């Protein structure tokens, strides 16, 4: 497969382009294979190597160019299903990322089913190139799906993580993402809340260091009446890292009394970091409520003063405040082994930050 340029993470409606934030451009994309996926399931879940076209056709946050790439490269599919109504189960997927690869993961939850899926993404220390992971999910009426993704890949490896989900009546989708590695990371997410009373809740935690870059595009389409969405992004930027967050709540005509909120909390740990945010609320329906709130800046002086009064030095105090951003995502990792591995990665970034430790 020859290398190509793709455009991804496009805003649903373009804004003033002076700052070039409407989309991302990815050069030299090449896919030469797929990664092996280690799967462990518990409960009433089934696995397969194919998925219905209806699921593969669900739109994603990164955009159609990624679908085209998957089809052209014949990327492998890993399907996990709670196929029977009321089924419950949990799955843990582990991937060791490597360059020039693409995988598709399809999740399907039947009516009243409840499933939790963990995706643990690591890599070799010297891994390089681009890894593409695309996840699509279909939730039948009143189903619940929790997807927890932990990325702790080498800073020499780029990652494109793309998600699309479609929710039926009363269905609930919960997404938790923890970005602790990668050189350049593109993260796309689109939720189609087409069923009445459907909902989604997103929490993204991250810490960027060195020259790392995180490019995010999160879109929620409110089609169902009384649909509800919350998107929370919380992280820290240090050294010369860069982050862009595009968050869109799209209230489509017919989705009466739908509600949505975007919340951002960014800690700037260096004068050399680059932070960009585009909140976008589109209203095709009048009887809706959407909001965006952001807290972006350096460490709060009152918090630093309080911590210094407890005998904690300034550097460690700032690390504690930064760690709180990723701890919000860590709380969702219920599997003991996976949580322990993730805690070790976090400890490698921050060290010990207990309040009673020596400054």
Helix count from the secondary structure assignment: 5
Instruction: Give the strand tally.
Output: 20
- Measured as a percent range, the helix fraction is 10-25%
- Oligomeric organization of the protein chains: single chain
Rg, rounded, reads 20 Å
* Uncertain residue ranges: 355-359
| End-to-end separation | 54 Å
Instruction: Find the structural class using helix and strand composition.
Output: alpha/beta
| Mean pLDDT, all residues | 92
Question: Major β-sheet, in short?
Answer: 9 strands, mixed
Reading the helices and strands in chain order gives EEEEHHEEEEEEEEEEEEEEEEHHH
The coarse overall form would be globular
As for the number of domains, it is: 1
Commentary on this structure:
This protein starts with a strand and ends in a 9-residue tail after the last helix. The protein has one domain (4-350). The chain has helices at residues 53-56, 64-73, 301-309, 314-330, 336-350; strands at residues 4-8, 24-29, 38-43, 46-48, 76-82, 88-97, 101-109, 114-123, 129-139, 144-152, 157-167, 172-179, 184-193, 199-208, 213-222, 228-237, 242-251, 259-268, 274-283, 289-297. By secondary structure, it is an alpha/beta fold. Helix 4 (314-330) runs antiparallel to helix 5 (336-350).
């Amino acid at each position: 497969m020859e290398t190509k340029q793709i455009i991804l993470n496009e805003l649903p409606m373009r804004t003033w382009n002076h700052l070039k934030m409407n989309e991302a451009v990815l050069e030299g994309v090449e896919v030469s294979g797929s990664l092996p996926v280690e799967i462990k399931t518990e409960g009433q879940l089934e696995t397969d190597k194919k998925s219905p076209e209806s699921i593969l056709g669900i739109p994603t946050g990164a955009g159609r160019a990624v679908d085209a790439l998957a089809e052209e490269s014949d990327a492998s599919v890993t399907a996990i299903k709670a196929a029977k109504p009321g089924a419950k189960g949990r799955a843990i997927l582990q991937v060791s990322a490597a360059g020039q690869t693409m995988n598709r993961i399809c999740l399907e939850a039947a009516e009243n089913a409840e499933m939790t899926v963990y995706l643990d993404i690591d890599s070799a220390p010297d891994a390089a190139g681009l890894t593409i992971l695309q996840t699509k999910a279909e939730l039948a009426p009143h189903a619940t799906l929790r997807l927890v993704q932990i990325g702790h890949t080498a800073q020499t490896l780029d990652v494109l993580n793309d998600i699309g989900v479609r929710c039926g009546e009363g269905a609930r989708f919960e997404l938790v993402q923890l970005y602790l590695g990668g050189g350049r990371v593109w993260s796309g997410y689109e939720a189609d809340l087409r069923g009445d009373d459907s909902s989604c809740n997103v929490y993204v935690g991250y810490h960027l260091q060195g020259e790392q870059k995180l490019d995010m595009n999160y879109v929620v389409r409110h089609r169902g009446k009384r649909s509800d969405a919350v998107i929370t992004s919380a992280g820290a930027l240090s050294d010369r890292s860069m982050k862009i967050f595009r968050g869109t709540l799209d209230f489509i005509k017919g989705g009466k009394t739908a509600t949505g909120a975007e919340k951002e909390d960014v800690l700037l740990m260096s004068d050399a970091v680059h932070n960009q945010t585009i909140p976008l609320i589109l209203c095709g329906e009048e009887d809706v409520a959407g909001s965006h709130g952001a807290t972006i800046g350096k460490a709060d002086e009152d918090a630093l003063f309080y911590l210094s009064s407890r005998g904690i030095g300034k550097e460690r105090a700032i690390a504690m405040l930064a760690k709180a951003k990723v701890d919000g995502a860590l709380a969702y990792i219920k599997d003991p082994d996976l949580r322990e591995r993730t805690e070790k990665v976090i400890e490698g970034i921050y060290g010990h930050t207990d309040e009673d430790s020596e400054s």
